[in-house]
Specification:
single chain, four-stranded mixed beta sheet, 1 helix, elongated
Length: 117
């Protein structure tokens, strides 16, 4: 029996997809917090990557792993996944821990590592 995986059909059996809903963290290559306020819905890969026999590049026939949907709020992402019948896991963002620093601490007398140049 044929089962459709179209979004307007229900996901059952082999077509069941799993997704992860999360808020992306700041990358190490940037100092700002741009692109970290949206929520992303990302599908988990259903197949392992295989090497292409001709070029040797890794790839998979799973195109859903390339889909990243952006949402303004977590509730919007959850509502979208519920509407399509997608199994999902919500990863809550961790709070930033900011340690206060002062430039004068570089020249403190009780500094643990001696400062010289």
């Amino acid at each position: 029996m044929f089962e459709s995986c179209r979004p307007d059909h229900s996901f059952k059996g082999l077509c069941a997809m799993k997704a992860r809903i999360y808020q992306p963290t700041k990358t190490a290559m940037q100092s700002g917090r741009g692109k970290t306020h949206k929520w992303l819905l990302e599908f988990e890969p259903t197949r392992r990557q295989q090497l292409d026999p001709l070029m040797g590049w890794p790839g998979a026939g799973d195109t859903m792993s390339q889909v990243r949907l952006n949402f303004d709020t977590r509730e919007d992402a959850i509502a979208h996944a519920d509407r399509l019948g997608i199994d999902y896991v919500v990863q809550e963002p961790k709070e930033r821990q900011i340690s206060p620093k002062a430039y004068a601490d570089n020249f403190a007398v009780d500094r643990k590592i001696p400062w010289s140049h």
